[in-house]
Design a protein that fits this description.
The protein is an alpha+beta fold. Helices cover 25% and strands 52% of the residues.
C-alpha cells in the first residue's frame, strides 16, 4: 500500500511542479514581454513621423581620388529633399576642390538623388542613395553616385553621415546637418 501511495503522490506532484515556471523561465518571459513592448512603443512614433515633409541639409567632408589611394579634395554641398513615407527624392548641388583633370579650382556637380530609408531600433535612419546628374571638371559630363549613410533625428534638426562612391573613382566621406519641415 505504501508504494502505491508514494507513486500516486509522485504522479500528482509531477504535473504541478512542471506547470510552475522556474525563476529563469519567468525572467526570460518578462524580458521578451518588455522587448515586445519596446518594439510596439518605437513603432508608434514611426507611423506618426512618416508623413511627407521637406528636408534641407548642408554637407561637407573629403573626397578621396582613385578609390582612396590618390589625393583628397574637400567638398561642400547643399541638398533639398522631399521625404515620402519610406524614401526621399531630392536635388543636391556640390562643389569639389582640385579634382584631377579639372580646369578650374572648384568643380560644380548637380545630382538628382533617390534615397531609400530604413528606421533602426534606436530611431536612427539608415539610408541607401543613388544619384544621377552632371559635373563640370572641364566640360559637362554625366555624374553618378552610390551612397550609404545614416541620419540621427533630434526633433526638427538631424545629423547625418555618408560614405559615397562617385564618378572619377572617388570615395566621399561626408557629414552634415539639416532641418525637417
Amino acid at each position: 500500500m505504501l508504494p502505491a501511495l508514494l507513486l500516486a503522490a509522485t504522479v500528482a506532484a509531477g504535473p504541478a511542479s512542471a506547470a510552475a515556471p522556474t525563476p529563469q523561465l519567468r525572467r526570460a518571459s518578462l524580458r521578451q514581454e518588455a522587448w515586445e513592448q519596446d518594439q510596439w512603443d518605437e513603432d508608434q512614433p514611426e507611423q506618426d513621423q512618416r508623413h511627407p515633409h521637406l528636408l534641407l541639409s548642408l554637407w561637407g567632408g573629403e573626397a578621396f581620388a582613385n578609390g582612396g589611394s590618390g589625393r583628397s579634395s574637400g567638398f561642400f554641398a547643399a541638398e533639398a529633399d522631399w521625404a515620402f513615407s519610406d524614401f526621399d527624392l531630392g536635388l543636391q548641388g556640390a562643389r569639389y576642390r582640385s579634382l584631377r583633370s579639372a580646369s578650374q579650382l572648384w568643380t560644380p556637380v548637380v545630382l538628382t538623388r533617390f534615397t531609400q530609408r530604413f528606421l533602426t531600433r534606436h530611431a536612427i535612419e539608415a539610408a541607401f542613395s543613388l544619384g544621377l546628374g552632371a559635373g563640370k571638371p572641364s566640360g559637362w559630363i554625366a555624374w553618378y553616385q552610390v551612397a550609404i549613410g545614416m541620419r540621427v533625428p533630434l526633433g526638427p534638426v538631424f545629423l547625418a553621415g555618408e560614405l559615397a562612391f562617385e564618378q572619377y573613382d572617388i570615395i566621399r566621406l561626408g557629414g552634415g546637418f539639416g532641418f525637417a519641415f
